[in-house]
Amino acid sequence: MASLPRSIMGGFSRIGRRRNHSLPSDFQPQHFQALDHHHHPEEWAFLDTFERQYGTVHPFFYACRLKEALKLAEEDKKLVFMYLHSPEHPYARSFCNETLRSEVVRQFLDVNFVCWGGVADGGEGLKMVATLRPPTFPFCAVIAPSSDGSLTLLQQIEGPVSASELVEILQRTMEEQGLAFGSTKSKQEEEFRAKQEEKIRADRRVREEQDAAYLAALQIDKEKEKVRNSPSKVEKPVDAKNARNYEKLKMNESATTTTKYQNKAVPKPKGGDHTQILIRFPNGERREQSFECRDKVQSIFSYIDSLGIAGIGNYRLVSNFPRKVYGVDQMRITLKDAGLYPKASLFLEPMPM
Question: Global pTM?
């Protein structure tokens, strides 16, 4: 293990090396328009550059500093996948389109790693290039914090690789380095995982109960509103104690909510009372929906559940940066109080069953 200069995050140590490729003789550089850094903070430079070239279907890269990405990885007990992007390199286009944006790589990275990207000619990306000195691009690496506060380079991949080969290298790295960096299934971690799974099941039960209570309260409010608006005709309010009526009421309301979201086009805000929520799914799909700022966070979960997208089980919603997790504990908070107003972007993060 060789030590590198302590110029970033207190230093690096290095394990492993991968490939070296020379440029093709007929390489024609691609001219790429530089970003206006006055309008694009450094944390967003990589995503803006990447998405302008290749679109929005890609692994979920956190728009933050590398130090913050490492902290998130430590909290989630994951390693960091780092990609240094050189837009004009001849291998960049094929690697990004055929490897990095492939479904198998996207799903594998989103589940197992915290992903961070940097542009090789600016900001932190340039600092990483100066520290790691990659002989060629594309350049990927798996990194983790060390006990002494520095960083350890577990694996690096240099040059073009296929989607299956990249997943194989990353899988092998996780298996080989797991013992040293806390990724093995030790007894303590198994106990922790069991507790987490139990908490997830409990949270799901609470959310289902909250859904039922919310629907029942909503129906009662509707009945009361009908009574107030029809003074000549007094209608009998819903009897919440009647189990059969309650179940019928809940099923009707659930069906109405699902139909409402499935058939309703995204409305444009008419004033300051609405907020636009953009939701990104692990498969790269995006959905945008308008909500009232007084709606609860629960309404976003209800909207997602109504879409009927296959493969979605337990999940939570995560804002990009600053990172904030929305789960059961935030269900009753209004969107405005939760910081999701007047617009917000959320990522649906799958959770283990």
Answer: 0.50
